From TrEMBL:
Membrane spanning residue stretches: 12-31, 38-56, 657-675
Lineage: Bacteria, Pseudomonadati, Pseudomonadota, Alphaproteobacteria, Rhodobacterales
PANTHER family: BLL2462 PROTEIN (PTHR37947)
Keyword terms, alphabetized: Membrane, Transmembrane, Transmembrane helix
Name of the protein this chain belongs to: Glutamine amidotransferase domain-containing protein
Domain of life of the source: Bacteria
Source organism of this protein record: Leisingera daeponensis
UniProt keyword Transmembrane present: yes
């Protein structure tokens, strides 16, 4: 029961203060005049002023409330290292027992898991959430069980009580980590790109030689070992061999006594892109399709085009003196012998043998294709003639032989059943609405893949692999009709773009391919093949365990499935003869960037709260009660501030000076003062 005196004035306080001032002035006047009853009249005035102020007697029935102690348990990945789980379990048991012995105390246990999206340890956010759920007037303190590596320490919250950190780990812990300081997301194929690496030791590092080994593996291949100095930035040049995703794995062998090897490796995924596409276009004679080819290639700023056009064949005799011709001699020897390897693609558009390009040049083109180059032939009537380039060294690489028949009839190009599965022509919808072509060269004995057919279902587009290179043959010179919109046109731009990229071995257009798209710890596995079926894909996790997954068909020639990896790292995928690698999770998880237990990160938060940092390896500290504003930690102890909060059960009020009593007392003192003055 609590007794309190309150005031409930009958008139505004300014009126009461004014009456008090008048009373004081009258009292001083009485003293100056020497009136004998001034004291009794002053008492009467005080009684009246007290009655006007309305004194009230209040009685409260209160029930004390227990103090609340918030204990935040760090359950992130770095807390699973070495003997930290045992330290946490022992500390939790001892702390729970100590808090249970403290009278009038409730405990709120808060678990701090790994932050979403590699955010690390969000301990302060967890504490803020716990405080939001509790009345702040009851919070006696916050105790954090953690290694101190908190990643949101800059988001300090306003606490009404001290906060302490009980530190896991040991003072003699040490760790070695690999840091990738600079890794671009994109790089140009064939050009060196520099990655900045650093091997760094932390904690109580034993005496070492100052050097460490580094293994580098590209696309899951055999690793190459380098020896690097510890604590020094090192620039490692890399050259990407192919386009698309290139997965590079770095690994530093684990040293004895090291805290963890989880931060000894890093995955870097770099997308390989081509700087510029170098194309050599050889036109046998001017025609409408030649301009279409030139405009198409020149419209792409990423294409460097060299166009070789025969405007005046040797057999042309028009009487114009050679010295008066304005044509510039074309450097054929330089292009076809010395610099042919500089081109990514060579296109022959309606070219036939005229003696301008000797057989040795064409033989060099065939060798260029066999060695990994790309050759595209857009055939016209000349391809079926006696001067056809098929009757040259190029016959070794061309995927079909002309029958010497030219079909001068309208037909609508169609995608074959195989073409519906091939990435070059799959998804080219609307074949029924495509415009017709008016001429086709008949082919026989095609080799490779026939993706499009023309008149009478004869081969129209044939693709083939020769040696290390690729060759395509388009048996018509009327593809330009699509670009002119003839009878609605067709997807010429998309078809030729895909065709060029397939010939340059872009990974996304491989007809036999296995790849995966990663998003966090999940991957989408995709398989493309021209075979009628596929088997299960074998996934090998970073720890060596394997799992087989069945693929489901999603489109002609395409299968896929989804998988969630149990841990970050490099995963190997295999189906039949196709293999690939993919990295899941962050390249360097934030939880393992800093693994040595420390109180320095939370020091700016604990200092204004008068909290302390104590190591659990020194034993569980004792609990003490301290007043607000006093130091709350010391050697072997931590303090909690009793809040003395309560809950009011009932309240009763009554006037301290009843009106009749105030009137009686005031009348008594006024009468006594009058009698006193009258007797004088």
């Amino acid at each position: 029961m609590t007794q309190t005196i309150l005031f409930d004035p009958l008139v505004p306080w300014p009126v009461i203060w004014a009456a008090a001032a008048v009373t004081l002035a009258a009292l001083l006047l009485g003293l100056w005049k020497g009136l004998s009853g001034w004291a009794l009249r002053a008492l009467a005035a005080l009684v009246l002023l007290a009655a006007l102020s309305g004194p009230v007697h209040q009685s409260e029935d209160r029930a004390p409330l227990e103090d609340i102690v918030i204990v935040a348990e760090d359950q992130t990945a770095s807390q699973q290292l070495r003997d930290r789980p045992e330290q946490m379990a022992r500390a939790r048991s001892q702390l729970a027992a100590a808090l249970a012995e403290r009278p009038g105390t409730e405990v709120r246990w808060v678990s701090v898991p790994d932050g979403e999206g590699d955010e690390g340890t969000r301990l302060m956010a967890a504490v803020a959430q716990a405080l939001a759920d509790e009345p702040r007037a009851r919070v006696a303190g916050v105790i954090a069980l953690s290694d101190g590596q908190v990643h949101d320490a800059d988001q300090a919250v306003s606490l009404p009580a001290p906060m302490h950190l009980l530190l896991t780990g040991r003072e003699d812990d040490w760790d070695r980590r690999l840091i990738v300081k600079n890794a671009p997301g994109f790089a140009i194929i064939g050009e060196p790109v520099k990655l900045t690496l650093r091997i760094e030791d932390q904690g109580a590092v034993p005496a070492q030689g100052g050097f460490a080994d580094l293994d580098v593996s590209v696309a899951g291949g055999p690793p190459q070992r380098f020896t690097l100095p510890v604590g020094v930035d090192f620039e490692l040049p890399m050259v990407l061999k192919h386009g698309g995703r290139n997965v590079i794995q770095f690994n530093v062998p684990e040293e004895p006594g090291e805290l963890t090897a989880r931060n000894n490796q890093a995955l870097v995924q770099i997308n390989g892109v081509r700087d510029r596409l170098r194309v050599l276009l050889v036109s046998g004679e001017p025609h409408a399709g030649g301009r279409t080819w030139r405009n198409l290639l020149k419209s792409d700023s990423a294409v460097d085009l060299v166009h070789f056009t025969i405007l005046r064949p040797p057999e042309k005799q028009d009487g114009v003196p050679v010295e008066e011709l304005s044509l510039i001699a074309f450097p054929t020897r330089e292009l076809f012998l010395e610099k042919i390897e500089d081109f990514d693609l060579i296109i022959f558009d309606r070219y036939k043998r005229r003696g301008i390009l000797p057989a040795v040049y064409l033989d060099n083109v065939a060798n260029y294709a066999m060695g990994g180059g790309a050759v595209l032939v857009a055939a016209g009537p000349d391809f079926a003639s006696a001067d056809s380039i098929y009757r040259s060294p190029l016959s070794l690489i061309l995927p079909a032989e002309p029958s010497a028949r030219v079909l001068e009839e309208a037909f609508r190009p169609e995608v074959t059943d195989l073409g519906k599965q091939h990435p070059v022509t799959s998804g080219l919808e609307g074949a029924a609405d495509w415009g017709r072509w008016l001429r086709q060269i008949e082919l026989r004995t095609p080799e490779g893949h026939v993706l499009m057919s023309g008149a009478g279902e004869r081969p129209l587009l044939v693709l083939n692999r020769v040696g290390e290179g690729r060759v395509a043959l388009l048996a018509s010179d009327h593809a330009w009709l699509w670009s002119r919109g003839y009878e609605g046109g067709g997807p010429q731009l998309e078809l030729l773009r895909r065709l060029a990229h397939w010939m340059m071995k872009e990974p996304e257009l491989e007809e036999e391919a296995l790849w995966a798209e990663a998003a966090g710890q999940r991957m989408r596995i995709l398989r493309r093949t021209l075979a009628g079926q596929v088997g299960p894909v074998t996934v090998t996790a970073p720890d060596g365990s394997t799992v087989e997954l069945e693929l489901r068909q999603t489109a002609p020639g395409q299968w896929e499935t989804r998988y969630t990896g149990p841990e970050p790292g490099l995963y190997r995928l295999e189906e039949g003869k196709e293999t690939t690698v993919v990295g899941l999770g962050p390249a360097a998880p934030k939880e393992f960037e800093e693994t040595i237990a420390t109180g320095s990160v939370l020091a700016p938060v604990l200092e204004p709260l008068r909290g302390g940092v104590l190591r659990l390896e020194d034993g569980m500290p004792s609990l003490r009660s301290v007043r607000a504003g006093r130091p709350a930690s010391g050697r072997g102890w931590i303090g909690l501030t009793p809040r003395e909060a309560y809950e009011t059960l009932s309240v009763s009020q009554g006037p301290l000076l009843p009106g009749w009593l105030a009137l009686l007392l005031a009348s008594f003192f006024i009468l006594a003062g009058w009698l006193r003055e009258g007797r004088r």
